[in-house]
Amino acid sequence: MRENDYPVVCGADDILRSLCDSVVKVLHLATTCRLNYSGMVQQISRTCLKPDIGCFVLFDGGFSGLVVTNFSAASAMELYERYMLNMGMSKEGLASAYTADEVGNVMGELMNQIVGDFTGKISRELQTHITQNQPKMLALTKQVVLSVDTHLDQPQVRRVTFRTERGNVFYLEMAIDRTEFIKLKDFEAEEIDPDALLDQIRDGMNAITASTENELLESLGM
């Protein structure tokens, strides 16, 4: 069989769809919030961090790219509150503004779990490996243009619109190599246990809670 006779298994837009599915799955598991994303994707020229709160994640390995999420204040607070209430926290003890450190920490850890789920799927389904940096949520008042500090081979840049259960909007942007994965032989992709993923999310959030408590005790000289 000639090389061009092999079926194309996955291209850049298929990788984007996989990432979008990870967003929906992880946020639903963490918050019980029903989310959906648009059936239409925008082709854009560059990625940007935009108000009110956003983050970026670089990944490298089998292919390189940049993922950016931009949340409105309303969407960030909805997901933050739903997560904290789902974890058994009282509504009275929650942060009241999206600029609070706790909101940024929670949203950053959720994004970390989203990208972790995505990279795990890439490893299982495409038989390759990518690594990621630790995402950090930033509260913003102005737009910040981002470029990937690595060479991208014919970059593909896309934006996808998401809606939360209450109709609040946030956006995911991805810049990625123009790439195609071609199947050379049959293999079975392993499935991940949703309960194991939820345990990972809870472990991450418990670490955030412990860190916040330690910082408070140190500020009090204890």
Labels describing this entry:
222 residues, alpha+beta, Chemotaxis protein chec, eight-stranded antiparallel sheet, two-stranded antiparallel sheet, 24% strand, globular
What Rg, in angstroms, do the CA atoms define?
Answer: 18 Å
Please write the CATH class name. Alpha Beta
Question: So what's the oligomer here?
Answer: single chain
Main sheet characteristics: 8 strands, antiparallel
Per CATH, which architecture? 3-Layer(aba) Sandwich
Helical region count? 4
Structural shape: globular
Share of residues in helices: 25-40%
Our count of domains comes out at 1
**End-to-end distance, in Å?**
70 Å
Question: Which class of secondary structure composition applies to the elements?
Answer: alpha+beta
The CATH superfamily turns out to be: CheC-like
Q: Could you state the order of secondary-structure elements as H and E? A: EHEEEEEHHEEEEEEH
DSSP strand content: 15-25%
Number of strands: 12
Chain-averaged pLDDT: 84
As for the CATH topology, it is Chemotaxis protein chec
Structural features, described:
There is one protein chain. The chain is an alpha+beta fold and 222 residues long. It has a single domain, classed as Chemotaxis protein chec. Helix content is 39%, strand content 24%. The chain contains four helices and twelve strands, in the order E-H-E-E-E-E-E-H-H-E-E-E-E-E-E-H. It has helices at residues 12-31, 73-86, 101-126, 194-219, and strands at 8-11, 36-37, 42-43, 47-49, 53-61, 65-71, 130-132, 138-139, 144-146, 156-163, 169-176, 180-182. Strand 5 (53-61) and strand 6 form a beta hairpin. Helix 1 (12-31) packs across helix 3 (101-126) and helix 3 (101-126) runs antiparallel to helix 4 (194-219). The protein is globular, with a radius of gyration of 18 Å. The relative contact order is 0.23.
